[in-house]
Request: fold
Amino acid sequence: MDDLLAVRKCSAGDWEAFRYLVEKYQARAIGHARSIVGNREDAMDAVQEAFLDAFQALGGFDSQRPFYPWLYAILRNRCFKLLAGRKRIEVSSLEEIQAEILAPASSLSREEALLLEQSLLALSPEDRELITLKHLDGLSYRELAEMLGIAEGTVMSRLYHARQRLRERLALAG
Reply:
């Protein structure tokens, strides 16, 4: 089953089609949510709520576009609402962070991974999100613009500044 067929079946109330979408995108969504909210428990809550929101909003899904960027926009909103409701990010264990956020950067030594992890967590959720999507997930500027609902030029500018802030954090920590 492909995403478009699954969305059509979901719109008709087919829970198995919804299960297909959840199973296909859940791990990816948790990783993205984790990079924004800073801990696994909140990420899992945000992902669960985002999937429920998506199911309820399937009537507004544009079948000419890919499913995950649409889901990601819903997930992103859930994550930032969650962050707005609390004062500071609660950080999980280093092993969990490395497994979920830093897994694509596994060629780093333990010390380098720790330094990167600490520096990423010191950034704003927005900066952390951009850097994670670009450098750890490997998304293009176009894909970032689509997922975040902003212009490519805005993505480039925000990413430039996020990288600058990360470099500053790495220099201070190292």
In short: Residues 94-173 form a domain with the Arc Repressor Mutant, subunit A fold (CATH 1.10.10.10). Confidence is low (pLDDT under 50) at residues 88-95, 97-102.
